[in-house]
Amino acid sequence: MRMQFWRKAVEDIYCDNPPHQPVAIELWKAIKKHNLTKRWLLKIIDEREKNLDDRAYRNIQELETYADNTYSTLLYLTLEMLGVRDIHADHAASHIGKAQGIVTCLRATPYHSKRRKVFLPMDICMLHGVSQEDFIRANQERNVRDVIYDIASQAHVHLEHARSFSKNVPVKAFPAFLYTVALEDYLYKIQKVDFNIFHPSLHKKSTLLPLYLYIRSWKKKY
Predict the structure, then answer these.
(1) What is the pTM of this model?
(2) How far apart are alpha carbons 170 and 84 in whole angstroms?
C-alpha cells in the first residue's frame, strides 16, 4: 500500500495535483522549481517495491542493480537540482551510488545479523564457504573476513571509477559527490580492522569527517 500511495502521488504531482501530505507537497515544489525527471522517482519506487521481501542478494550484481536504481538515481535527481545535466557527471553518479549501496549493506550487517537477517551477496558467501549463520553468530574467522574484503573491494573499485571521470565532471556537480568522503572513511576503517565487520570501532563516529568534507569541498575534489 505504501508504494502504491507514492506511485500515485508521483503521477498526481506531475499533473499539478499533489496529495495533501507534507512530503508530497515539498516534492511537488522541488519538481516545479528544478524540472526533475519523473522517471527517476518512479525507478526508486519500483526498486524498493521489488525488495520488500527482505531476502539476501543472490550475487554482487543484484546488489549493484539495487544500488544503481536507488542511490545512483537519487544522485541523478540531486544533479538536476544543482542544474547539472552532463553524461560524465551521470557516469560518476552511477558508480558512487553503487559504492554507497554496497557500503550501506556492509554497515548494516551487524544490525541485521542481531535480528537474524543477512543481506550480503550469496555468491560471495558461497565462494568462501560462509553461511548466513556465521554472520548471525558474529563469526570472525578468516573466511568471513574474506567475504567482507571482496564486497568492500567492489565498493572501492566503483569509487575509483567515479574519480576517473573527475576531469570531465562540471564543478557544479561536486557538492553532490562529497558523500564519497564518508564512503572512503568507512572503507579505510574496515581495512584497518582487517575486515572484521563486527569490530566495535566501526560503530564509532568519525570526529574528523567534517574536516575531511571541508577540505575536499575546498579543493573541489570528490
Answers:
(1) 0.94
(2) 8
